[in-house]
Amino acid sequence: MPENRPVQDPFKARQTIDTPLGKRAIYKLDAVRGVGEVDRLPYSIKVLLEACLRNVDGFIVTEDHVKALAGYDATVAGKQEIPFKPGRVVLQDFTGVPAVVDLAAMREGIVKMTGDKANAKKVNPLVPCDLVIDHSVQVDAFASGMALTINSQKEFERNNERYQFLKWGQQAFDNFRVVPPATGIVHQVNLEYLAKVVWDGDAVPGQDAVLYPDSLVGTDSHTTMINGLGVVGWGVGGIEAEAVMLGQPVYMLVPEVVGFKLTGKLPEGATATDLVLRVTQMLRAHGVVGKFVEFFGPGLADMPLANRATIANMAPEYGATMGFFPVDEQTIKYMELTGRDRKLIDTVEQYCKLQGLWRDESHDIAYLDQLELDMGTVEPSLAGPRRPQDRISLSDMKRQWWSDLAKTFDVDTTTLMHNPVGGWVEDGGEPAGQVGNMPNPEANHRGSGVSEDDPDEAAASKVAVASPQLRPDAGVDVQFEGQSFKLAHGAVVIAAITSCTNTSNPEVMIAAGLVARKARQLGLNRKPWVKTSLAPGSKVVTEYYNKAGLTEDLNALGFNLVGYGCTTCIGNSGPLPETISKAIQQGDIVASSVLSGNRNFEGRINPDVKANYLASPPLVVAYAIAGTVDIDLLNEPIGTSKDGKPVYLRDIWPTQNEVQQTVEAALTREQFIEQYADVFKGSEEWQNVETSTGELYDWDEKSTYVQSPPFFVGLGPDIKPIASVHGARCLAKLGDSVTTDHISPAGAIKTDAPAGQYLTANGVPVSMFNSYGSRRGNDRVMVRGTFANVRVRNQLAPGTEGGVTTFQGDGGAAVPSVAGVTPVKKGEVTSIFNASVHYGACQTSESEVNRRPDGTPLIVLAGKDYGMGSSRDWAAKGTYLLGVKAVIAESYERIHRSNLVGMGVLPLQYAQGQTADTLGLDGTETFDIAVDPDLKPGQAVPVIATKADGKAIKFEAICRIDTPVEVEYYRNGGILHTVLRRMAQD
Fold first, then answer.
1. Which of 377, 405, 427 is the last residue of a domain?
2. Residue 442 confidence (pLDDT)
3. With pLDDT > 70 as the criterion, what percentage of the chain qualifies?
4. Residue 142 has pLDDT above 70, yes or no
5. Is the pLDDT of residue 458 over 60?
6. Does 340 have pLDDT greater than 90?
7. Is 82:254 a contact under the CB 8 Å cutoff?
């Protein structure tokens, strides 16, 4: 690994300027004007260029790296590797706890490797790191004035061990701060407080402090939200973030940049959420995985910063590394609103204009491709039922629901239909069944996903029909809270205003409050089966709700404050009321959720809920009132007023003028200053959390939350040669769009799952199981939870769901006396964890479970977009601990591919046109993978799959270790192993 060397200035770029903050040094981009057309560079590339220019040392960062960026050519980008040194790291607690656990284990590892306890301090963050505790609150109590208090109490009861550990880390590590629970969501806290846009660096003795663009990586994929503020940053796995914390650069290929031109303004009735769902759909269709997206055009001039942040937040959903908005007047306006220091604000404007980082539409930026959207064509929408990119126009929602009920959820809809006044026609005009005699010429429906830029395609899908209705007798009879009703397919059992995507946006939040106010005035309320919740990303939201008088209106409809944090979107929706849950299971009901989040992958939101839809906060309120997605909200009444008249959505929907006037009257700079004045202090409960001290953590063998992971056990200074894989068995054969949620779920732990059995065996009551996400500091839970999502479908165990596989070993191995391990014979279906143990491949920190020298190596076969979704390092860590040596997939999402390499797991990709099915692979074969000891990025790797009858299938897979540095990580067994060896050598 490269060592740190003194910074040089070969381009004579360093200059001193007078700023409102005083004299400051900068590295002027004009210094490399002769190398390339700096004015035509995408703004995001300019930030990478400045970082290289400022950090040239002739070793890690060279003059060639600077030239590669200064001479950027969008059409040939993606060929050369560059190092990028982000200015800081941001973590949330689900991913932050395992990161700090790894650092604690590395301290232990370096002491064992060197025999010198003094070396422990070498493992320490070298850049500023902020961890925001925001993923631990769960919605247990709701629709009650006591919900916030009850949920907070339960949060501290469940997570006290984790909080003790984080407080230890706060005192043990330098450059490491913790934002306590009940403060806000990490991305909103970052946007409203942590980010500076331009960073004021520490002064070197005898030199002026350096100004440079704020930049970061975060351990949450939605770190990209900060791009809306003109700050370069994206999500990485915890493994890569830890390396950055320890002074390593992010090594990346020069990114391709796609331009997205925005024109016009949002029409009446449309929100920023509708805009981002449209943008997500367009960019997913275009294909921007691994690319930067940069927004420009006249539409930005009046676009509020909060709308930009909403679009930037969902970059992972459209597949991009970033969704970047350059700094301009709206940035300055937002910094002023959120209480930033006046001198900093003035310095940001001065610096960005001087460096050419200020948005200037007169420059013709050199993008790889360009897309364009007239925002005036945006319409109210949702996305679902399983993916954020599957946008559905509100006008088409009911018809699409019936289509998905049949096609996605395999429900026989012909037995459910009842419609005496119309027929229903599928996309393309094929009748789905005549159920009436009088088609309604007024009801025009458009299929989801239809390109509105293609008039012919759009026209072809428009049909004059009426939607079907559920039969009056359909559903399960339920008695709940003194009411009787039928719970049927499509019932909205969760309506949640949650997630950083929208709770940071005052306009959509105020709109939700106004919908609640108008509904309340008309006598409308939520349906009794709907679990409602309001989880803002910042306490400022509560302040402006109170000032606008909207809190009482939201409370009246059950949207009481449940906590400040990421709840439903991450899977912390909490259990449904037992009566509702039993009814869903009894009738095998396809229940739904509507949430203002950014993720709706199957199995993520709640184990009882199969259909999940993303929507704007005001639509969340509307669907809580309707109680079902089986409704045309544009044409059917949402309810009945207190005087018996039908009420339509249009009757309770606020105008843009109403929203804007309320925002201007209720939102103030002083609210931000007051709420962030003591942001690191926390509540009395947080202050009372006791912890240990010292440089080395005192691990507790009885802890079910924090254990020393086995990643560095036996690690020595010598590096073993890269080895081939022989006689491997397939642990799982998976289809397309397998998410990191499928691989490593974040939500509820089932009692009969291996992880549940482990907790039960360790005396943890079910009420205190908490979630997989909260237990990521314990490898013993997490390896048992790998591939344990209730919706994962392993083709090696056809007809099943959940973390099971067919064991193909010979069996007969000794069974360790640990929870979740039972005897198994060849050909039997068993848990993936149990199979791994019996293959002799599994490894955890339990001494009873160790990889056998004669154990069977394992592989995973997968389809397209493997590992899409959250930047979840445990999806790679768990894969590694199960004994998986390689994954062969049709394609990968960026972060998960990187995480696999970071854990020493080989990512291979089928050649173009090949899949497991075209090759005839069913997963029952044994696999030999000839890995070259002198492996190169992108190299073809020979694979031989041998069937039981001896037939051999030979093919070449592409090595998806993409850069030379990644080869070194893989050779060392992972990125942290590489860093630790280097530290020990130093």
1. 377
2. 33
3. 94
4. yes
5. no
6. yes
7. yes
**Do 129 and 23 share a structural domain?**
no
Helix (H, G, I), strand (E, B) or coil at 71: coil
Q: Which phi and psi angles does 440 have, rounded to 5°? A: -95, 110
Same domain, yes or no: 728 and 795? yes
Q: Which residue's structure tokens are 């284990």?
A: 105
State the alpha helices, DSSP H only, in 769-849.
779-785, 832-838
User: Looking at 413-422, 536-545, 653-662, 764-773, which range is the least confident one?
Assistant: 413-422
Helices 272-286, 506-521: crossing angle, 10 deg rounding:
130
From CA 145, how far away is CA 559, in angstroms rounded?
10
Categorize the per-residue pLDDT at 521 as very low, low, confident or very high, splitting at 50, 70 and 90: very high
Instruction: Find where tokens 């997570």 sit.
Output: 159
Distance between CA 971 and CA 951 in Å, rounded?
32
Q: Residue 845: which domain range? A: 712-985
Q: What percent of the chain has pLDDT over 90?
A: 79
pLDDT of 746 higher than 90 = no
Among 868, 801, 716, which residue's Cα sits nearest to residue 235? 868
- pLDDT, residue 61, reads 92
CA nearest 543: which of 502, 520, 510?
A: 510
Domain for residue 705, yes or no? no
- Residues 56 and 134 reside in one and the same domain: no
890 and 915 Cβ atoms separated by less than 8 Å:
yes
Query: Is 191 among the domain residues?
Result: yes
Cα distance between residue 311 and residue 388, in whole Å: 13
- Tell the burial category of 852 from Cβ atoms under 10 Å away from its Cβ (0-12, 13-18, 19+): middle
Q: Is residue 682, in this structure, part of any structural domain at all?
A: no
CB-based contact 69:49 (threshold 8 Å):
yes
Given a cut of 70, whether residue 466 has pLDDT beyond it is no
How many independent structural domains does the chain possess?
Answer: 4
CB 832 within 8 A of CB 808: no
The span from the CA of 858 to the CA of 818, in Å, is 21
Query: What's 546's DSSP letter?
Result: H
Q: What is the rounded average pLDDT of the residues 725-752?
A: 94
Digit-coded pLDDT (tens) for 424-439 = 433 343 333 322 222 2
For residue 475, CA distances in Å to 520, 636, 639 come to 28, 21, 20
Q: Which residues are 594's β-sheet partners?
A: 495, 613
Q: Strand ranges (DSSP E) for 2-137?
A: 14-19, 22-27, 81-84, 88-92, 129-132
- Residue 224 confidence (pLDDT) above 90: yes
Side chain identity, residue 106: M
Q: Which of 502, 189, 533, 340 is nearest to 180 (CA)?
A: 189
Q: Using CA atoms, how far apart are residues 86 and 111, in angstroms rounded to an integer?
A: 28
Under a CB-based contact definition with an 8 Å cutoff, are residues 560 and 552 in contact? no
Angstrom distance (rounded) from CA 960 to CA 937:
7
Q: What share of the chain is helix, strand, coil (3-state, %, to 5)?
A: 35, 20, 45
SS3 395: helix
Query: What is the structure's pLDDT at 430?
Result: 38
Residue 644 lies in a domain: no
Domain match, 257 and 345 both = yes
Q: Are residues 742 and 813 in the same domain?
A: yes
Residues 823 and 728 in one domain: yes
From the list 834, 838, 837, 840, the residue with the least C-alpha distance to 853 is 840
In this structure, are 45 and 174 located in the same domain?
Answer: no
Contacts of 473 (CB under 8 A, 6+ apart): 486
Task: Dump pLDDT digits (tens) for 244-261.
Answer: 998 889 988 899 999 999
Classify 207 as helix, strand or coil. Answer: coil
Cβ-proximal residues to 30 (8 Å cutoff; 6+ apart), any chain? 38, 356
The answer to whether residues 638 and 626 touch, using CB atoms and an 8 Å cutoff, is yes
Query: 313: domain CATH number?
Result: 3.30.499.10
